[in-house]
Amino acid sequence: MSALFEFCLRMGDNTLVLGHRVSEWCGHAPVLEEDIALANTALDLIGQTQLWLGLAAEVQGEGKSADDLAFLRDAWDFRNALLCELPNGDFGQTLMRQYLFDEWHCMMLNALRSSTEKRVSDIADKAIKEASYHLERSRDTVIGLGDGTTESHARMQAALDYLYPYVGELFVADGHDEAATKAGIAPDLASLRDGYDAALSATMAAAMLTIPDDKFAHKGGRTGRMHTEHLGHMLTQMQWLQRAYPGASW
Amino acid sequence: MYAQMVKSTGEGVKSRDEMSPEEAAFQDRIDQDIKIEPKDWMPEGYRKTLIRQIGQHAHSEIVGQLPEGNWITRAPTLERKAILLAKVQDEAGHGLYLYCAAETLGVSRDELTEDLLSGRMKYSSIFNYPTLNWADMGAVGWLVDGAAIMNQVPLQRTSFGPYSRAMIRICKEESFHQRQGYDIMMKMAQGTEAQKKMAQDALNRTWYPALMMFGPSDKDSVHSAQSLAWKIKIDTNDELRQRFVDQTVPQAEYLGLTIPDENLKWNDEKGGYDFSQPDWEEFFDVVRGNGPCNVDRLAARNKAWDDGAWVRDGLLAHAEKRAARKTAAE
Amino acid sequence: MSKEWPLWEIFIRGQHGLSHRHVGSLHAPDAEMAIKNARDVYTRRNEGQSIWVVEAKHISASNPSDKGPMYEPSESKVYRHPTFFDIPEDVGAM
Ligand SMILES: [Fe+2]
Ligand SMILES: [Fe+2]
Ligand SMILES: [Fe+2]
Question: Could you report the predicted ipTM of this complex, rounded to two decimals?
């Protein structure tokens, strides 16, 4: 399959899976204002999914739709980073996951605005505006909770400790990534790392949180080689109607 | 309705002779459709009734997120997921606007929330029913939001300024809720056999609970009489219920679905449908806490509130620290 | 019960160059979060171009019982309104 197709899946599965996770909060957030804000984030991510998976389906050329790709692939065909599929945990873990993703997402989208593939840069132009706001909000919340009470600080440190090993995967390129970089579709992933680390350090310093020393990185989501157990459970919910009633239109 | 059986003073409407000069002037303003604003003088009974009504209305919006939220992660397409999420998010917004309106009467959102969580205050009976198949998302939008709109459109003219303004904003947003519900119903009713079955099943389960939303007949209620006089209630429960049935029957016919009522029949004389009353015994059971989902709904709200305490405290502590650092630097 | 976030009044300037208008209120721990919350709560249907937030306790309001002295004197200054003056139609638009 083409580098462009793979690339679109990786972008679209990130937003699909993370958007789904964030949408799980609806009706259960700590305060109404946060409930509404989380729903906005989820809505943006679902909208971006429609664009990325729509483009993937178009490139694939088998007459499929974004919905077909979202609802009818099994876990091994998903190409999202593991970070996105991890469970929500408490509100702090959700916002920490969001921040770690948003920081990467913004750098990625910014680079994609100069993609040689016009359809990619068009999506990036639209998505960057949404992602920038997500980042502003998640960064402020991570800082606020990190530098809040003793309890909120401890919870945010626990969230960072749990999630940090899933950050590295965002910067590890495989053959598909290299092909996309070569074709001018996407930036070299490794080239984003320094900027990311600098931003992360600044945020965590403001949040009074300590970045773990260990740079070990779990991998396998973006390549599809090995997802976490969590993804399968998410898909059983997400895909249930489409699977149980094949061919129905909704 | 979203606010059901709201108790007023219980003393009945005062005659002009019984009113103090202030009360008479107040009633005059209401009769002339002049809005009452938070700092205006108002009878204590008016203030208290409004807090109960707006509070209950707000609680209903918030608890009302849960039955539909139940299907967000199972929505069958990306577009349906987005629409449903946006719709449920709107309900959170409605709750927020209404709590703010209540706050102008001197009660805090936290106080109202505590009253909801402890069960001291009620929310609409409808949200104690489960959503069991995808067509319920259609039926809820079509019937539940439809019934709510019946009540909320006239409430835009209610006498209390902040309540009226909240209702105007809410009604503007509500207009898409009912339509998205009906849109789901159309798809289902025109779909496969299984989908048709889901649609009919959803209608069967939602019909009577939707009729209950308007509350038992209140033509003899002293509470409603006072609320009508104060224009915090605009129509009687029976009027609204009749209007709802008359509007809904042709919509069900269009879908090819059957309303589960053998007595449903057009009555030329009254220019409306005759229909069966819901089981009011069941209604009172639900109100007393014995509906199919009462326990789960309150547990979910309590969990969200309790689990969120450290977040609310943490962000406030940070804001206070920052403010203190800023003052120290100046 | 822990402490409640302060209440903020939200003013939004819409698309068409009108002034900021009061749209409602919300709770937030500080001004910056109030602006973000206002963006999420009150501009979901792209109503907004600019947001002002004011903590509710800082708003001073006129007393409703002063309505007479506050607003009625202006009722008699009808000459402030353009319709007060009869200009012959022949003069054209004015
Ligand atoms: Fe609503
Ligand atoms: Fe509703
Ligand atoms: Fe609604």
Answer: 0.97
